[in-house]
């Protein structure tokens, strides 16, 4: 007979949903990939931003050191002009070395772009070179021509103009780098927020799709199981399952009806419990199925008739092994299935 009509209708209604779920499966994995890419991109961009902020901070620190060394240079130059003692050239020479180190460090930090340190006027590197050249000329005049010649050059105001330009340029560079750091941080916050939302949305979307697919597949399995149970229950032949001890674990309605003939014991009993004489006839095919995995078909089995007192009803039985995969995935016999049919139905 057929499975319940209502179950079949539910199956037809859900097929389109299951097809949609199967299509959603690659979409869910695609969303997971997008989430991972967004998270990775966010990490890489954050690392890049940290590097740029560190570079800007290093430039500001080194520019401050450079400016301090230039002031030391000017102080040593003035002391030598005023006094003329060689000991005043010690801080002057030290400042020149410190300026060289700062310029080299700026070249390293900016990856060779220290000449690009321009605030609002001339490049800082050029202004520093001009200041060093002016200080060197003042010191040379003091050594060669004396105090008056050196002070005449200082009174021209060239050194002050260069120093004022350096001071202004340092202030502009400091402000520009501070603004650059603030801009990077604002961009980081916005990008981090957007990518976090994107990552979270795609990840949760993927999880939701996979959960929906899992629920639909579970529903499909439940419905398939219900359909199978309906087929077994309404089959026109007796169907039953025996465990490894040959005790009856399941029987359909047709097999239960055969109990009126005295055939088939109750659940948990052997099938010959009511008719012990059947044990000799059925033991061999049952053990062949259970121990060797062999199927045996159409064994004639006489049982008492329900309708004719003292009469015999002839049945035919078939046995087959029931296997399930073990832990290694290999089939393992867990019991015996059997089919019981009236001889007239068997001939049809």
From TrEMBL:
All copies of domain CHASE3, residue ranges: 52-182
Transmembrane segments: 21-44, 193-215
InterPro entries the UniProt entry points to: CHASE3 (IPR007891), PAS-like_dom_sf (IPR035965), PAS_4 (IPR013656)
Keywords: Membrane, Transmembrane, Transmembrane helix
Superkingdom of the source species: Bacteria
Annotated ranges, domain PAS fold-4: 232-323
Record's protein name: CHASE3 domain-containing protein
């Amino acid at each position: 007979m057929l499975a319940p009509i209502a179950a079949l209708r539910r199956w037809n209604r859900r097929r389109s949903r299951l097809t949609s779920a199967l299509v959603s499966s690659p979409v869910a994995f695609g969303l997971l990939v997008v989430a991972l890419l967004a998270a990775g991109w966010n990490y890489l961009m954050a690392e890049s931003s940290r590097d740029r902020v560190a570079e800007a901070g290093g430039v500001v620190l080194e520019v401050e050191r450079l400016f301090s060394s230039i002031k030391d240079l000017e102080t040593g130059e003035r002391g030598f002009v005023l006094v003329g003692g060689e000991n005043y050239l010690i801080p002057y020479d030290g400042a020149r070395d410190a300026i060289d180190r700062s310029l080299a460090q700026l070249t390293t930090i900016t990856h060779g772009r220290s000449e690009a340190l321009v605030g609002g006027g001339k490049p800082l590197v050029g202004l520093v070179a001009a200041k060093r050249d002016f200080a060197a000329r003042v010191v040379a005049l003091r050594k060669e021509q004396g105090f008056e010649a050196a002070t005449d050059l200082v009174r021209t105001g060239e050194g002050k103009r260069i120093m004022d330009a350096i001071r202004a340029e340092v202030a502009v560079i400091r402000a520009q780098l501070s603004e650059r750091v603030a801009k990077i941080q604002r961009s980081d916050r916005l990008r981090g927020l957007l990518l976090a939302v994107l990552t979270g949305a795609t990840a949760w979307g993927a999880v939701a799709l996979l959960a929906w697919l899992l629920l639909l597949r579970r529903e499909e399995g439940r419905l398939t199981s219900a359909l199978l149970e309906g087929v077994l229950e309404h089959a026109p032949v007796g169907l039953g399952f025996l465990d490894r001890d040959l005790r009856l674990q399941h029987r359909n309605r047709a097999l239960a009806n055969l109990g009126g003939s005295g055939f088939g014991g109750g659940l948990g009993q052997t099938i010959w419990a009511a008719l012990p004489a059947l044990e000799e006839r059925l033991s061999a095919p049952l053990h062949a199925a259970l121990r060797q995995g062999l199927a045996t078909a159409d064994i004639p089995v006489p049982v008492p008739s329900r309708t004719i007192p003292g009469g015999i009803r002839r049945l035919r039985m078939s046995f087959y092994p029931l296997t399930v995969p073990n832990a290694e995935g290999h089939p393992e016999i867990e019991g015996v299935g059997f089919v019981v049919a009236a001889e007239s139905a068997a001939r049809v």
